[in-house]
Specification:
elongated; alpha+beta; 5 strands
């Protein structure tokens, strides 16, 4: 039917695909190539400022990125507020002000010079 060489190439290819899918199912996402994930993400960038358990949207994304960068750490989170999935929050740990970003806003901030 097929020569042995084609079977080897097919098996190696399927093995690589199986490894990538297994890593994805384990929660390990592969690194993005260029801006592919940002282009494929059709949601709008979202920045929310939390102060005393009150969430306020911030429309100026550049200023939000600047203020979020001033914080000591940005950590992963899986939180949904008003139907919007937020993936990162940045805080100093000492104050009650937190900056929550969705993946689109975080990718934008990471592409800025200040980050």
């Amino acid at each position: 039917m097929f020569p042995v060489r084609r079977w080897v190439v097919l098996n190696v290819t399927l093995g690589i695909i199986a490894i990538i899918l297994g890593l994805y199912l384990a929660g390990i996402s592969p690194p993005a190539v260029g801006k592919v994930l940002s282009v494929l993400d059709r949601s709008l960038p979202l920045c929310l400022v939390e102060w005393k358990s009150t969430f306020t949207p911030w429309d100026d994304l550049d200023q939000c990125c600047l203020q979020a960068r001033k914080q000591l750490s940005c950590e992963n989170e899986d939180q949904t507020i008003d139907g919007q999935k937020l993936t990162k929050f940045c805080t100093t740990g000492k104050t009650s002000v937190k900056f929550h970003l969705n993946q689109k806003a975080y990718s934008y901030c990471r592409s800025q010079v200040i980050w």
